[in-house]
Design a protein that fits this description.
By secondary structure, this protein is α+β, with helices and mostly antiparallel strands. It contains 4 helices and 6 strands, in the order E-H-E-E-H-E-E-E-H-H. It folds into 2 domains: 91 residues, Ribosomal protein S6/Translation elongation factor EF1B (Alpha-Beta Plaits, 2-Layer Sandwich); 38 residues, no CATH class.
């Protein structure tokens, strides 16, 4: 199972019971499809970047869950036809990586959760940066001297 984040933007004029019903229906669908809910976090009312259906604000909610990939399409279809939902976005989340760091004072290794990508990705980025030829630089020759 993969970890996903679902951002819901719900109409600001929707009653609280309808908002909780949408969130409850979404979480029940994830669990029924074989997934599990990690976290549900309401972000509250926020101003939208541009008007959507004549609304300038929206009620934001984030749901972090683990689910099989096949269930995501059906979840998106159900959110698309829900009247209270203005916008939604499902993204695949990166799981936190455990990093082992030696404790200087205690002499024991401790594990720390970070939200950094795996180390292999950083090494690939460094190789690309080292392969840039200085002769192809956009800087003016006077700026180099």
């Amino acid at each position: 199972m993969r970890r996903y984040e679902l951002m819901l933007v719900i109409r600001p004029d929707a009653p609280d019971d309808k908002v909780s019903a949408v969130i409850d229906r979404t979480t029940r669908y994830v669990v029924a499809s074989g997934g599990q809910i990690v976290k549900v976090a309401p972000w509250g009312r926020r101003r939208l970047a541009y008007p959507i259906d004549r609304h300038r604000e929206g009620s934001y909610h984030i749901i972090v869950f683990e689910s099989p990939a096949e269930a995501i399409a059906e979840l998106e279809r159900s959110l698309q036809i829900t009247e209270e939902v203005i916008r939604y976005l499902v993204t695949r989340a990166v799981k936190p990586v455990k990093v082992r760091r030696d404790a200087a004072a205690a002499g024991e290794a401790e594990e720390i959760d970070t939200d950094l990508p795996p180390v292999e990705d950083e090494e690939e980025d460094m190789d690309v940066a080292e392969r840039i030829d200085e002769s192809e630089s956009e800087a003016a020759p006077a700026a180099i001297d």
